[in-house]
Amino acid sequence: MARDSALRFGAQTDEVMSLLRVVNLVRTGEADTRPEIGRLTGLGRGVVAQRVEAAIEMGFLEDGDYGPSSGGRAPRTLRFRSDQGTIVICALGALHIRVGLASLDGAVHAEAHCAWDIGRGPAETIDRALGMIDELLAAEEPRPIWAVAVGVPGPVDFETGSPVAPPIMPGWNGFDVRRRFEQRFEAPVWVDNDVNLLALTERSHRRDDNVDLIYCKVGSGIGAGLVSHGRIHRGANGAAGDIGHVRVRDSTAVCRCGKVGCLEAEASGWAIMRDAQLALDEGAGGILAGVVERGEAITPEAIAIAAQDGDALAISLVQRSARLIGESIAALVNMFNPGVIVVGGAVSSAGEIFLAEVRQRVYELSLPLATRDLSIVRSIGDEREPLRGGAELAIEELFEVTFPRWFADGRPTIEGVKGGA
């Protein structure tokens, strides 16, 4: 019967689009009763009933409880069936792998994490990630996998799903990440820069569907995700927001990408670790010296904590990093005019010590009009954020971009999603 419903709508574009809109209104929570759907769409009661019936037969919606009455018979609520499929998320970082499973409403219900060096290459890294995902799936009630989202710490050609000249990912240039996951899960796969996933998470925290936002991550590396009118701006080749490799004036530091003077070589987590070690080797004391004496590693997190605890060396390193990053963000503010800048990553965990310097440089160097309504805040810092962002990416691609291509099948397939491309 579900297939019959799909075929009934398949050749009639206006009817198809109204059906998809009905599903998405319920899915996003904009409407949860038939009268609300009619009010928002302008469709007549009979047409709404027909579309809802088709959506239920196809498995997208189901009837819920009765809602409050406004004088007549209480309306029956509708629910999107978010439990009918699973989204697999794999968030690769420079020094870790994080994987998770989410329902179709974006709620992450299982996750795993391990330390890992992305420099070990694509074959070994993806094998490890797939093994972690298989362990999560084995502990779950079996459900069809509807989509896979993968984040990587470097520029990505979004159309092909391949990293493009990633500075800190040797062996990954042009590697077909999408293919490995498609082969394993037989589901559509989307691959994106890891900072874009974090930007999508921040977008989901805000009620404004047309938000203009910059997410700047300052961890082992530095990158920015740009959200323009509610949509990720990736640029022509996936390099939009790659501020880690813009030139710092008068810098002679060699970057991991091989160039000289990159922002990442002066202000990233690995750069301030280098500078901290040099200062300690020259006899600097304080909290960081005590960390070394105890045999513990100097990490960006350790430097951020030491700064919060008042260590002079750590404070100076964090503040210099923040000033340099603030200068690069200011250039983005003048060009992009965001309403919100969110700063995240290990170095930013120093809190106001870091954020205050970023704010000062941005406001000093940006146009008054561009900063008039600008807010600069720290991210929540939840370790699940890249997983939530991966789920947001998959949901957006499934229901807002490719839905008309595959809805007649009742669930997404690789061929169906690509069919209209």
Automatic annotation (TrEMBL):
Stored InterPro entries: ATPase_NBD, ROK, ROK_cs, WH-like_DNA-bd_sf, WH_DNA-bd_sf
GO molecular function annotations of the record: kinase activity
Top-level taxon of origin: Bacteria
The keyword 4Fe-4S is annotated on this UniProt entry: no
Signal peptide: none
Keywords on record: Kinase, Transferase
Cited Pfam families: ROK
UniProt family annotation: Belongs to the ROK (NagC/XylR) family.
PANTHER family: GLUCOKINASE, ROK (REPRESSOR, ORF, KINASE) FAMILY
Protein name stated in the entry: Putative NBD/HSP70 family sugar kinase
